[in-house]
Every structure is written in C-alpha cells, then in structure tokens.
Design goal:
The chain has 147 residues and is mainly α. It has helices at residues 3-16, 20-36, 51-72, 79-94, 97-101, 109-119, 127-143. The chain has one domain (3-146). The protein binds zinc ion. Zinc ion binds at residues 31, 35, 92-93, 116.
Length: 147
C-alpha cells in the first residue's frame, strides 16, 4: 500500500495499543498483511518512471503519511513509542529503497523485493485508492476497541 496507509495504521496502533511490545510487533506485522489487500501504489510501473519522479512521489507519500499520522495519533502518545510503531509499519518499504534506487539486486534487498512483489494485491485506480481508505478506516475503527 502507499506509505500514507502504512503510516496511518502504524500511528493508530501506537494510539490504541498500550503494550509497546505488542504494538510494535503488530505495526511490523501490519505491513505485509495490508499489502495482501488489492490496492494501487506509486511503485506500480516503476520501471517506466524516472528515478527522480519515483523518488519525489515516494518522499511526498511518506511525508504526507507521517504528517497525517502524527496529527491524528502520534501527538497523543509517547513520542518514541509512536516513532517505533511508525517505523515498524513502513520499514518493509524503506528496505526496498536500495533495490529501487541503487540497483542493489542482492540479498536481502532482492529477496525482500520479490516477497513484497508477490504478495501485493494489485488494483487499478480509483478502486486501488478506495480499498486503502476503507481498509485504514476499518482498522482505525477496530483498534478503538483496545483503548
Ligand atoms: Zn510494502
């Protein structure tokens, strides 16, 4: 999913789960689980995009995601706990940066890329955005049970 979706779920976990070990584990596990759901992402068709375009889009996506997630959830919880959950939720995609931008086609980057590539549920626009909005909303709502 987009970094925005991952960052929001990571933030919501920090906000709702009081136990930090459980929270960080959940945030980390949320990434591949979310990616199973059919969605659209900036990375689609990355081979046809210039590195600059891809980098700009990915950075904006991450910046918007972090800003939104901090505004909605992060500011209300322990800062370090929030950052740990955020980091756990987006780490998987951060680890793909060397593969994409430096051409590091070797372990563990290539392995991680191919795993992430294969579990991705792909959907075209606009449905691929809608599935993310709905998924994130449902997860945020469900997490409120723990608060
Ligand atoms: Zn991913």
């Amino acid at each position: 999913m987009t970094a925005t979706a991952h960052a929001l779920v990571g933030g919501a976990i920090a906000y709702s789960i009081q136990n930090p070990i459980l929270g960080v584990t959940l945030a980390f596990a949320s990434h591949p689980l979310l990616d199973f759901i059919p969605h659209w992402d900036f990375g689609w068709g990355w081979r046809n995009k210039s590195k600059l375009k891809l980098f700009t889009e990915a950075s904006l996506d991450l910046a918007v995601g972090i800003a939104l997630s901090y505004f909605l959830f992060g500011q209300y919880v322990n800062f370090y706990y929030y950052v740990a959950c955020l980091f756990g939720a987006v780490l998987w995609d951060l680890l793909e940066i060397p593969y994409w931008f430096f051409g590091w086609r070797f372990f563990p980057f290539s392995t991680l890329h191919s795993i992430q590539h294969h579990i991705q549920g792909k959907a075209k626009l606009p449905w691929g955005i809608l599935t993310q909005v709905v998924t994130v909303a449902v997860i945020v709502f469900m997490l409120q049970i723990f608060r």
